[in-house]
Amino acid sequence: MGNSIPAEKKRGAIIFDRDGVLNVDVGYAYRPDQIIWIPGAMEAVRMVNEAGFYAFVATNQSGVARGYYTEDDVQKLHAWMNDQMDSQGAHIDAFEYSPYHPEGVVPGYARQSECRKPNPGMLNRLLSRPGVVREASFMIGDKTSDLEAAAAAGIDGVLFDGVDLVKTITTRIYQQLGTS
After folding, report:
1. Does residue 77 sit within a domain?
2. CATH number of the structural domain spanning residue 145
């Protein structure tokens, strides 16, 4: 009898916007000392993990195009954020970010892009990962552009009002589990 690799479990994904949903939007955050976690953010991500959903982040990072910081800075911050979440029993399965903006000043980044929300490029990349069930996925964002990106990717968008991310996640996860 040969070795067999079990098929990856298929499951939905919850895609979080970063600034304004997981952390306070202080404007162009790229260093750990700029991150102020939204109360309950790590608990909400842990709930997503424990409920069996993928936890993803899709975030516009036009500060790269504007010359405020680099893609390396974004990646280091995301690794730090995941380390912080790990200490609370939570994790993000994947981060996607768009470094582009049509009014940027850095060559190569100063342009429109399919991955910059409200376009669905980042979401489509996340939803195309092996094991992700698009129909059981949704996005939580704090801006209209997040909801527009979700709609363009063919998933539901939930507007986070900044008050209680745990309640928002709990309510939506139970709705999702009841329909899938």
Report:
1. yes
2. 3.40.50.1000
Residue 1 lies in a domain: no
Select which of 19, 93, 142, 146 is catalytic: 19
Tell me, yes or no, whether 5 lies in a domain: no
Report the domain count for the chain.
Answer: 1
Q: Which listed residue (17, 93, 142, 146) is catalytic?
A: 17
Average pLDDT over residues 72-98: 98
The answer for residues whose C-beta is within 8 angstroms of residue 85's C-beta and 6 or more apart is 42, 45, 46, 91, 92
Q: Is the pLDDT of residue 30 over 80?
A: yes
Determine whether 33 is an active site residue. Answer: no
C-alpha to C-alpha distance for 64 and 76, rounded to whole angstroms? 13
Let me know if 17 is a catalytic residue: yes
* pLDDT of the residue at 71: 98
